[in-house]
Amino acid sequence: MAVEGGVYRSWGRYPAVGNQRIFRLHDRFAALSISTEVQRVLPYGHGRSYGDVCLNDGGGLLHTRGLDRFIAFDVVTGVLRCEAGVLLAEILDLVVPRGWFLPVTPGTRFVTVGGALANDVHGKNHHLVGTFGCHVRRFELLRSDGERFECSPHESADWFGATIGGLGLTGLVTWVELQLRRIANPWIAGEVVRFHSLEEFAELSRAADGDYEYTVSWIDCAAAVGRGLFMCGNHAPALSAERPQVSHKKLRVPFTPPVSLISGLTLRAFNALYYRKQLAERTTAITHYEPFFYPLDGLLEWNRIYGPRGFLQYQCVVPVEGGLDLLHEVLGQIAASGSGSVLAVLKQFGDIPSPGWLSFPRSGFTLALDFPNYGERTLQLLERLDVIVRTGGGRLYPAKDARMAGDFFRQSYTDWERFSAYVDPQFSSDFWRRVME
Amino acid sequence: MRKVLIIGATSAIAEATARRFAAEGDALYLIGRRTERLEAIATDLKVRGAHAIACEAMDVNDVAAHSAAIDRAQAALGGLDTVLIAHGTLSDQAACQHSVTQTLAEISTNGLSVVALLTELAERFEDQGHGTLAVISSVAGDRGRQSNYVYGCAKAMVSTFTSGLRQRLSKRGVHVLTIKPGFVDTPMTAAFPKGPLWAQPDAIAAGIVDAIRKQRSVVYLPRFWRLIMWIVRAVPEPLFRRASL
């Protein structure tokens, strides 16, 4: 195993951790030879989680991007097996031309399969198909003592449940087998509807859930009323009315500006404009799947716009019952603080349970926000939001968290104790140490 | 569909290049040292679209085995259009300075084995009168430097040998390509601190595929190394002697 140093950050660029040894993995058959000077290690994929679940200060990172081989793909059944460091983008490049698609995809395709499994990511179709982990057929887990488990819902089922959503703590996932979803072409027949209140959003969501595989909303959180755009779509039928192509030219944020470009002023202006980006209340269009699922992937390294101090993501889920009132309270707090979020995303999760014990999604409304890091001011706002979410019986998404209190985590993830017995004695993370304090 | 033989197929540059061949539906025959890794790569290339794929384990220093291995590749693919020779080890210069055995072993792996393979392949390609022999040399072969002149002299041998071979075989319609990568971020160079001069294996692979298509003679990859090495070669010896590169 190769060793090197260097600063590794998560996608939120907060916190920044320099004190980690990097072990780059290239061979899935090799044992984990963890040197004695490194106490604890943690798998690190493509660094797209936001907070500290992918960081391990004072320990080692097992960089998995070199485990990027496909192992099998059955074009008839759509079963794909690949090493854990393969990116979802690489899977799409391979399978879309052959009529298959990811069963579940998060808002960026630049994550590894192992990272998607470890964070049990969800997508716009959660209400119909559940999380990423619901479509994992099997995987191999390599423990630091050299033991290998082939895990599925039927074999080593406890390791299967602990590892899906297990934040990389149960060992190294070397390969994953997924069930893909059939498509006729790469196009999405989509619809965008403006809503003027959270109640209207809930009504749209209820009405669309049966008809649309994908639903998500953008919400203008500079305006406390809960207005926004409801976006939904389906894979286009074989005879698609239009066949838009996608540009492969990507823009990149070339450097990190000295201060965040997102301020109260730019934020209100952007939100107000975006809310009015379409003249009609309702529009329909056929788009390529890339802009539909991954609008931000077109702007490489967009996280730089928040400046050197980075930003904090906040994603909560609250129960349907009483959920809208909680969201009103949350939006009220944010509007009052003046430090709103550009990309406020709202969605109603379905009730399909994940096999993962520590999986985040559950039936209810989920709201995802990002805040430029203004230090104490931002942290205090997020703590006020915690009180609202916690009182309402909600919880936060570890993949996006860098600061929730340990007792909040332990109270809201009731399986944590059962899970902790499955943590590899040589694995740990900044997140895990923080919430176990 | 090309029929491609890759020697040193588990190297990062070779694997990245093979993926580009596979995506174009080429038929591939892989030779490397470690069977398990070869098979993992072969399976991956099959999934990525390789028309046909086979592999075998061989130690390039076992010169007596070369001819039969090439025969098997030729038989499996039904001929050979392109050969990529990509194997190599990054010599531990300090250790070589204290060990004749290690110095000669490095020169054998990085230089002599390539000469042996090319001698065998040149005969066949001269007879068939078409095809490409693409060989990975290195910028290190352009001038001996105190930090890696053992590796460098083996690569100089490869560069010089391919230069002569190119002259000989071009008259028979055979293309000989000398590839000189600079610093590449691979498992072989994992111990080095990385700076802005470092390139990813896939960028090198793109350059190799392009150079084969355009029938180039000598390519520096990335291309700015041509300028850097021109300067390194131009430094007068009295000055070069005092430097520590």
Briefly say what this structure is:
The complex is a heterodimer of chains A (437) and B (245). By secondary structure, chain A is of the alpha+beta class.
Please give a structural write-up:
The complex is a heterodimer of chains A (437) and B (245). With 437 residues, chain A is α+β, with helices and mostly antiparallel strands. Chain A has a domain at 70-183: Uridine Diphospho-n-acetylenolpyruvylglucosamine Reductase, domain 3. Helices cover 24% and strands 25% of the residues of chain A. Chain A contains twelve helices and 23 strands. Chain A has helices at 88-95, 113-118, 126-129, 157-163, 198-208, 264-275, 289-293, 323-337, 376-391, 406-412, 416-420, 430-436, and strands at 2-4, 8-9, 16-17, 21-24, 41-44, 60-63, 70-74, 79-83, 100-101, 136-142, 148-151, 172-179, 181-182, 187-195, 214-219, 228-235, 251-252, 282-288, 299-300, 311-318, 344-349, 364-372, 395-396. In chain A, strand 15 and strand 16 (228-235) form a beta hairpin. In chain A, helix 8 (323-337) packs antiparallel against helix 9. The longest helix of chain A has 16 residues, at 376-391. Chain A is globular. Chain A starts with a strand and ends with a helix. Chain B is of the alpha/beta class and 245 residues long. Chain B has one domain (3-242): Rossmann fold. Chain B has nine helices and seven strands. Chain B has helices at 12-23, 35-47, 66-77, 93-97, 100-128, 149-170, 201-213, 225-234, 237-242; strands at 3-7, 27-32, 52-57, 82-85, 132-136, 175-181, 218-221. In chain B, strands 3-2-1-4-5-6-7 form a seven-stranded parallel sheet, sandwiched between helices. In chain B, helix 1 crosses helix 7 (201-213) and helix 5 runs parallel beside helix 6. The mean pLDDT of chain B is 96. The chains are: A alpha+beta (437), B alpha/beta (245). Chain A binds chain B through residues 2-5, 24, 26-29, 66, 69-73, 94, and chain B through 12, 36-37, 40-41, 43-44, 47-48, 187, 190-191, 193-194.
